[in-house]
Write a structure and sequence with these properties.
By secondary structure, the chain is α/β, with parallel strands linked by helices. The chain has 9 helices and 15 strands. The longest helix has 16 residues, at about 155-170.
Length: about 290
Amino acid sequence: MSETARPLGIVAAAGNLPTQVASAALAAGREVFVFGLEGIVDADLTPYPHAILKLGQFGRVRRIAQERNIRDMVLIGAIHKRPDISSLGIDLGTLPLVPKIMKSLAAGGDDAVLRGLIGLFEDAGFNVLGAHEVDSSLTAVAGQVAGPAIRELGDDAALALKAASGIGALDIGQCAVAVDGRIIAVEAAEGTDAMIARVKHLRDIGRVRWRGRAGVLSKRSKPQQDLRVDMPTIGPGTVEAVADAGLAGIVIEAGRVLIAERATTVQRARETATFIYAAGERNGAPTEPL
């Protein structure tokens, strides 16, 4: 059996990306089974074979996977709060892994936690795939993605991308906002939506000022990031928040940022006159500095 035809397991956290991946896999002829995380998954899983389980029921995951001959696994969706050991619902099959789980949860940054999670699955014999490896349409090639056409990104985009790379290298965040040649916000533990809300608040109270729509939100992967999990994501809500904050557009890293609900995201960009541009390499040549 070829790799693209093997059954696929999907560990589903919050958001619509898990069902997007499941639909893409089915369309490609793969069998799928979705492991929905209890209290976290919020998408409708009824169209797919699935089970709802706690984070600590890794033994159950392995049993179901063995029954269904699943070796390939995608871990996708948002987890907004780092769990503590008391909420994991650990089953007998997971008990031997508790020391390793504790070590991962105690790790300093998100990247270390996610590397530990990948390690758990790989040690159990699973092949962990990125969502973009199942559905290539989830990322963008370099160039204009949506919204008003732009001829060049300009200094704000280059500055915001540089700032996002800097904070990413320190495992702080994945986003930055630049307006009129000045970094006015970077993402930390609050997340992208709260950072954009902070930008809007700063403008509302006059702490930062600009006329009309200006400035850029950048979002890119961390330099050291394992793109199989927690790849940066934008979606319709990102576009609406950027427009509401008075920013002109969004620049993402080509091939390394997921676009959730792409058709709706593109439509929102058009409706709100917000550009989305993917910076990266096209035909082997860099289109914008990264």
